[in-house]
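pls ignore typos typing on phone
calcium ion + seq
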Amino acid sequence: MRMNSRSRRLLQVTTLGLVTVGVAFAMGLRTSESVRTIASIEAGTALGDGDFDGNGVMDIADAIRALEIVHGYATPTPNDLRADPNGDGIVTIDDALHILQTLAGR
Ligand SMILES: [Ca+2]
Ligand SMILES: [Ca+2]
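k done
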């Protein structure tokens, strides 16, 4: 069966639409990461106290919370970003190590 020009055009538009939706979805995921990074930088202008879970003390649970964020098991909250112990504006494995080193030095 031969496609007439109208059917061919419809197929092209549909294909382009599907590709656009796919690209937009991928770009949306990147945008979410960008927003998270900017928010992290703004919140991390000073050294935090390492109290990720906000219970008033820095302990092993805070290192675990940092690792959960690093591995994507938890989304950082504003309190997490304020707790950033090395003050670089993002939650990384260095923050968990910083907490563990601090705890070991007590
Ligand atoms: Ca804590
Ligand atoms: Ca940090």
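Residues 51, 53, 55, 57-59, 61-62 surround calcium ion (ligand 1) (CB under 6 Å). The helical segments are 5-43, 60-70, 78-83, 93-104. more later
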